Amino acid sequence: MKKYLIFFTILSIFNVSVALASHLRFTDVPHGQWYSEAVGLMEGFGIVKGYSDNTFRPSQNVNRAELSVMLLKTLKHIRDPYTMCVVMPEITDIGRPELLVSNKYPLELGFLGAIFTADDCGLGNYYSKVWGVDNDIYTLGSSLQLDNAPSSQLLTVLKEIGYESVGVFGPNNPADESTTWLLKDANVQIIDILKLKPFYQDFASADCYHCG
Read out DSSP for 195-207? Predict the structure, then answer.
């Protein structure tokens, strides 16, 4: 199958308009062709990279191996839970692995979503692919924002792990009802972090504390 026909099939998975593509770097894909914007969009998503001579070769057939890679990258972008278990994380230009988070968890959960996804995958060596994890120990601390004051069950878990409430407290605003919590310890066992997973729907966002 020709490359440009495959691209329109992939675009239907994303459910986006080809009008979103704004630039093309391939010398053999001029602006104005009926497939130009689709190619530009797929390049922007990182699904294709073209060839070293800056060509795309739109009329060249795609083999099964190439199609498999493109579809896998497409599923990664829509955060399919199964795909998150088999796609290796990309390394950014600062040497940091890209966090892989399945669509079960909000992207705002950051490292927590990545750790939860790794646990869902059931792969023993997967935690090490999460930025900040070394030998099953999370090393960067955590800031956690809740949607509401924690339930008694969540409060117990937060304190067990070592989170501390943040805010100005008084008789009408007790510390245990805070929606902002910090884990300052830079070395926490993943098994303890995973105690938070049953409560993921209570979290608005999460981030590292010692991002450095």
Answer: GGGGGGGGEEEEE
As given in the structure block, the two tokens for residue 23 are: 């630039």
In contact, 11 and 34? CB cutoff 8 Å: no
Which of 108, 101, 106, 103 has its CA nearest to residue 205? 108
Structure tokens at 50: 């073209």
Helical residues (DSSP H) of 123-209, grouped into ranges: 152-161, 190-193
C-alpha–C-alpha distance, residues 40 and 182, integer Å: 42
Structure tokens at 141: 């601390």
For residue 26, which of 10, 9, 4, 11 has the smallest C-alpha distance? Answer: 4
**Which residues lie closer than 8 Å to 34 by C-beta, 6 or more apart?**
none
Tally of CB atoms within 10 A around 59:
9
- Cα distance between residue 39 and residue 107, in whole Å: 26
Which among 29, 79, 145, 119 is positioned nearest to 163, based on CA atoms? 145
| Domain residue extents for the chain | 3-77, 95-207
What is the spatial distance between Cα 95 and Cα 196, in angstroms, rounded to a whole number? 28
- pTM of the predicted protein model: 0.59
Closest of 53, 97, 100, 50 to residue 76, by C-alpha = 100
% pLDDT > 70, the chain: 67
Reply yes or no on whether the pLDDT at 15 is more than 50. no
If residue 5 lies in a helix (H) or strand (E), which one and from where to where? helix 3-14
